[in-house]
Inverse folding.
């Protein structure tokens, strides 16, 4: 039934694809926004702790299960199940992963659509198309629908080309571009008046803002940012050759993800204070720094407007950065249902991509037409509940259901002396006991 499986052609190809999945709006928008809302560097410190102590171990669970099974999440969990109960739980969790990945993509494509529209805006202005420019940056249903469709189409085009020619090729091209754009923008912003105040707000911790809520936001942010819980990293792991060391690649992906989030903070927070210096309001009525959509869609464009013609080019660079970051993530989300349709429903890749892409676009459309009531709800169900809970199930499968000798032999592939490493001494019991308990504890706290 199954078509021949794709595989990443190299270590670097996997690294770019997995880092591309991880690095997205979560890093360049979500992370700086959370920092702005939660006491600057105090949040940064918590985030680093969460990323390495909680997210990295879960990432390892996904990569290991995926490479072992060489199948999507449903098949992978069913495959290692030892009895009817674990098989049932595995099936439900696998399907839930597909549903949650699709829900995340359905709202992500809307936000990414805004980024595409804002990227088109400076071009419209350059060509003197004032009305079009207004439409592009105004918040209308027609604008949102059009640009979500464009972004979803791009995502589908890449996924239809397969693992090596689509995901790997585009990630390898786009990720270095993203890093160059990010660095250029930082250099530019840091030379503007007001930037240093922003650096201070970013890097000097305000520990008075510490709260359990902060811990929870840091955990949510780390899970979202590393694309965990929904089978994305699992399926990317399933395309990885047995010659690569999983702990090393997983650590590199985590480092790149955290590194780019941190670097994006060096751009966004200083840019806010530069905007303030130029006369833009950066505090909301309640006295907090503006976070959420207002930050990216109002504060920064207002800043670009004050820069005259050069502002148009800065705006292009900034929104190109956002579109690239979104695209390398959205393809990894779409791959989850597509891989399932290929492996379990026997579809070819192209029809599978078209089918799943259209279903998800239909969900996006429902959200667009009922934005007020649905957008926040879908974000919260998928990222605050779906991702952490599925993360717990993945830890349980990697830590309790997967036999330890199987785990060892999978990790030994590409890392023959794994038994002698600190990783092997700590990770197996850590993912078995500490991770699920920590995630559940944080989770219970949200509900209370
Ligand atoms: N990690 C992506 C980001 O930071 C989001 C994502 C979540 C991607 C889940 C895939 C799966 O934007």
């Amino acid at each position: 039934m199954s078509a021949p499986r794709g595989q990443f052609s190299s270590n670097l190809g996997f690294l770019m694809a997995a880092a591309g999945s991880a690095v997205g709006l979560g890093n360049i928008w979500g992370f700086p926004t959370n920092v702005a809302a939660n006491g600057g560097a105090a949040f940064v410190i918590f985030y680093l702790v969460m990323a390495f102590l909680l997210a990295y171990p879960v990432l390892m669970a996904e990569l290991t299960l995926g490479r072992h099974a060489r199948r999507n999440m449903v098949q992978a969990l069913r495959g290692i199940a030892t009895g009817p109960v674990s098989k049932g739980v595995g099936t439900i969790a696998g399907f839930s992963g597909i549903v949650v990945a699709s829900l995340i993509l359905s709202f992500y494509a809307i936000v990414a659509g805004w980024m595409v529209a804002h990227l088109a805006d400076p071009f419209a202005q350059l060509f003197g198309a004032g009305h079009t420019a207004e439409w592009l940056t105004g918040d209308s249903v027609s604008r949102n629908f059009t640009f979500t469709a464009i972004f979803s189409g791009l995502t589908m085009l890449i996924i239809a080309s397969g693992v090596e020619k689509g995901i790997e090729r585009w990630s390898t091209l786009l990720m270095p571009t993203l890093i160059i754009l990010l660095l250029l923008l930082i250099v530019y912003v840091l030379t503007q008046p007001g930037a240093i105040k922003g650096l201070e707000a970013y890097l000097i911790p305000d520990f008075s803002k510490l709260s359990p809520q902060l811990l929870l936001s840091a955990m949510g942010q780390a899970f979202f940012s590393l694309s965990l819980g929904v089978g994305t990293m699992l399926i990317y792991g399933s395309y990885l050759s047995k010659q690569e060391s999983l702990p090393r690649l997983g650590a590199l992906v985590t480092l790149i993800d955290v590194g780019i989030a941190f670097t994006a903070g060096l751009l966004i927070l200083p840019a806010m204070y530069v905007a303030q210096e130029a006369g833009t309001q950066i505090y909301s009525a309640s006295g907090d720094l503006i976070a959420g959509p207002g930050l990216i869609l109002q504060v920064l464009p207002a800043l670009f407007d004050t820069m005259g013609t050069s502002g148009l080019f800065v705006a292009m660079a900034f929104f190109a950065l956002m579109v690239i970051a979104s695209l390398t993530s959205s393809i990894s989300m779409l791959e989850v249902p597509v891989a399932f349709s290929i492996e379990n429903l026997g579809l070819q890749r192209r029809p599978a991509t078209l089918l799943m892409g259209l279903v998800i676009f239909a969900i996006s459309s429902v959200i667009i037409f009922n934005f007020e009531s649905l957008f926040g709800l879908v974000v919260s169900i998928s990222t605050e509940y779906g991702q952490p809970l599925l993360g717990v199930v993945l830890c349980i499968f990697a830590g309790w259901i997967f036999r330890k000798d199987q785990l060892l032999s999978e990790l030994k592939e590409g890392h023959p002396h794994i038994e002698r490493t600190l990783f092997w001494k700590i990770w197996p019991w850590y993912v078995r006991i500490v991770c699920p308990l920590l995630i559940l504890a944080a989770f219970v706290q949200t509900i209370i």
